[in-house]
Write a structure and sequence with these properties.
heterotrimer, A alpha/beta (about 325), B alpha/beta (about 190), C alpha/beta (about 700), A: about 325 residues, alpha/beta, Rossmann fold, 5-stranded parallel sheet, two-stranded antiparallel sheet, globular, B: about 190 residues, 4-stranded parallel sheet, 6 helices
Chain lengths: ~325, ~190, ~700
Amino acid sequence: MSPLPTTKPKLAIFGAASCGGCDIAIVNIHEHILEVAAVFDIVLWPTVTDGKYSDIEAMADGEITVSLINGSMRTDETVHLARLLRRKSQFLVAFGSCASEGCIPGLANLSSREQILDTVYSTDSTENPDRVRPRWQVGIPEGVLDLPEFEPMLRTLDQVVDVDYTIPGCPPESDQIWAVLQALVAALDGTGPLPPRGSILGAGDSTVCDECERKRDVKRINKFVRITSQASFDPEICLLEQGLPCNGPATRNGCGAKCPAAGAPCIGCYGPAEGAADFGARLMSAYASVIQADKPEAIDAALNGIVDPAGQFYRFSLAHSLLRGSRAAWKTDGEH
Amino acid sequence: MNAAPVSPVPTEVDLQTVFEPTVIGFTCNWCSYRAADLAGTARTKYPPNVRLIRLMCSGRLDPAFVLKAFAEGADAVMITGCHPGECHYIEQNLKALRRFRLLRRTLEALGIEPQRVQLVWASAAEGVHIAAEIARVTDEVRALGPLDWPADAAADTGINLDSAWEATGGQEAELAPAEAEQAPEADR
Amino acid sequence: MSGNGTTPAEGEIRIGVYVCHCGSNIAGTVDVVEVARWAGEALKDRGVVVAREYKFMCSSPGQELITDDIRDLGLNRIVVAACSPHLHESTFRGATARAGLNPYLCELVSIREQDSWVHSDRSAATTKAKAILAGGVERVRRNVPLDPIDVDINPATLVVGGGIAGIQAALEIADAGFHVYMVEREPSIGGHMAQFDKTFPTLDCAACILTPRMVTAGTHPNITLMTWSEVTRVEGYVGNFTVTVRKKARYVDADLCTGCGVCEEKCPKKVIDETYEAGLGYRKAIYTPFAQAVPRVPVIDRENCTYFEKGTCKACEKFCEKAAIRFDQQDEELTLQVGNIIMATGYDIFDAREIAQYGYGRLPNVFTSIEFERLSNSAGPTNGRIVLRDGVTEPKTVGVIHCVGSRDRNFQNYCSAICCMQSLKFAHLVKERTGATVYNFYIDMRTAAKGYDEFYQRVLEEGTLFVRGKPAEVTEAGRLPGEDGKMVIQVEDTLAGRQRRIPVDMVVLSVGLKPRSDAREVATRFGISSSSEGWAIEKHPKLDPVATMTEGVFIAGCVSGPKDIPTSVAQGAAAAARVLSRIQNKSIRLEPIKAEIHAEHCSGCRICNGLCPFNAISFDSVLAVSSVNAAMCQGCGTCVAACPAGAISGSGFSDEQVMAQIEGLLRIGMNGTAPDRRRFPVASGETTGDRTAEEVRA
């Protein structure tokens, strides 16, 4: 059943492999959501409204004005829908960390598909005596059932389709979402400029330190430590200067530096700063540069506080990094 | 002629059949690049597997360069610079050392063997030394086999975005409501 | 942005590629014709408009190929594949500039030193040349026009260290009519040379040739002498250094003091003079180090002065006719503005106690070379009589041991350059003054400068006995006839091929030279680099021995390693000449290889603040952003690589240039074709492209 014709610009919001937090962040603009509904004809938002993929299929190419896609590309179904929405949309927005850089689900790129399935279906915590595994095609009396295939590697939205805009964050801050939506509405009204294609929206031009209130000095780190209790750290001084691996220096600002304000190191959910080729490389280089040790053994001792380098440096950005994942992720699967 | 202890230079036949690693080498302008120059002037032979990039200092080495080299298909990366205490920028090579130690840990977590990224100090006088080190690294990586990191496939967009973009009037354009828009052409 | 702030000029990129044969130097191993053909075809889509090969690109006709093509074909990027950029980069950039193109849009890639000269297989070398060229082409696409930076030069110069090298440098500049500030740590200028008696090989008296220079320097209208002073801070950059000098309190008013010496005479406190007399003589608590000191203004040694110890005495004050004594004088901080700095801070002497088996400090009649210099000096504690530690007995037999602490893996690996000659001088002086038998123990005899070997022959003819071998020990434990009451030098005579025990009355250890104990600290203060031993590193050891990597800071004399007097003097003059040419030019043009911080992206995290050894990065606490002073930046790029926000760009070596060069270098595989790359795996259903919604649900 097709919706009735309308003169309003069409908006699609779609969640691929995601936790749902992005949808909640959108709803968290509170009553402004009514303004969104007033301006846009929401043609797809599975979390909130009823909508059929077939309705989208039936649309003309470019008929949707804006699509916000959150979540990462984990099954061939999400890949298909991303392509579908790309074709039907004038503007495609990678919404949130999963869509733009893989986020926590992207850490799955440290493992192969087989390893992931083993963990989920064949470890002691799973009751699965018949060792059943998901299959992408299942024979049923009516014929062959085609199910979404779990991709060998997780991809970000821009690794599957061209993306016009990116809104970073895990999830993006609601006030930033509302600001972006207002700007879009203004652009559609003709009362505001359209941001240049490729722009990062809803975030700043610098990094988290720009918004962080903590006092900072010339950086000299004797050793990295893990946070155990907040009591052992000075509440006023830069966390990195106290040896805590805070990702703030490399992470795009826009969040309001909430984590360091609360005494927790930034974990980097807003992704890399403008133009940075690889988030992890930026952090590794910065951290290592200010270690106060010159002998290999002393350097290693100082670095021992970073117990999980891949997790520390690529917690959100692994799938979008220069290497996209570990060798295990592509090698085993590819060589099966 | 000065001969570094090198492995046999591969012949054309070898190159078609046997795995020959490609090694990207980062050199500093003052010591290791000059060591490589000296190796040349002295006709010191080493395997042709290494391809050098000149930086002003090993301190310029951004870990992203190493990751980029692997992502572009290099089998190994050599980082070279002045010996500690002899850096032309006083102590910037020590920053390279620190970055190297950290980068190597991260690369191991990503399944890349430590032999694939090596740090070598060479003074401007050590042409034979750098030739020998290139030979050693090449041998070690040949024994490891190819890294063969997958290439970044261009995004399969299903739409010619540039034409779509132009259809909207480019960057500065103000967007009219959808009905007024000419829907961009899909190319398939 | 992580790379250059500026972007390439708009419009089409048109690259000219030029492959040099270098006679047969390149063409003998690399198929240059094939490389040029390949570049013209395979790199066409990368903007290569023309690709030529030529016998000698650096020749005039070769350079004309480039200039003509720039004009005729509208090229806006040039890649020359030839020799090392260290050889001809300026040549080809010059040609590019002559044709009206910014010189930094030209790249020289080396297919000679890095390819044809180090590989033998023609096919492999040709493939590598293509890869190197492709790297250059990708890189040059990201090159942007750069403009050199011009900096004005303040004509005043700072000379640090008042030894013979510093004096020479100061006089040259002052005589040319420009002002010099000379800072010396000791109370007098003169340096080590002032301690010597004779100088090899001519044996002229050190004081006779040095003192007039010291006096000239001390009275020169263009020289401001600051002795008993140290440089504590250096800020700024070439042309505009701000130097802070701490003038230690002398407790004497230098303006009033006439240098009459009465205070010294009347001072009741005798102190062993460890510096100038090397512990062999005494001075007073108020003293000038030696009679010919410049300036003639004494200093009070606060630690030993009775007044400072007990609060009474003031003998000096009582007897000073000019009332020049100032017990309440304080250290002063002075700020100097200079355009260039010459460091002539000299050397320290190796501590012979470190080699316990030679007995220095334990056996009374083991002397160091500097002690012997004082002993043999007619103005020294013994008035030039060469005697044992008892002050009266002349030695009958003397052993001079070369290479003490030098050429020794346990101590200093290097040759101290002056020890052979000073040891020969000692042998001659002992012979001349005492007639004693002299043994010289050497590893190799190094007499390589003008008149040096002739002096060696003269000492040989005088009857000095030479033993080739490094003594194992010096001992008092005599056990053979004739060893009683003597010291014995145990040595393997490597020419005779046997162990020898040689009884002597006196041993002179010809100790090596080593960097000043605070050399590293001082080098850091001035922003220059030093070797692992601590010697200052030259900009180029052969071609630029008096310049350093830091623009505007020059070095002369033993600060960069052991040297004899003629070389130190030559270096002092050379450094002065370099400074004078800068002053005459009134400004200096700096390479535009610089880091730049883009304030809009800088979060003020201060990661970069401690990384610059040249102190070029400063932090603005009001705006909370860091910035780079372009004139102080030496272009190493460390901060560029370290910036977590990617807010620092490096001109000439931008991220974009390096990343692009990596791509270019890997464009061609080891087998000479484009590499067949693996792709990241995708779901099996994806290979046919996207399915319809119906298919998904079917």
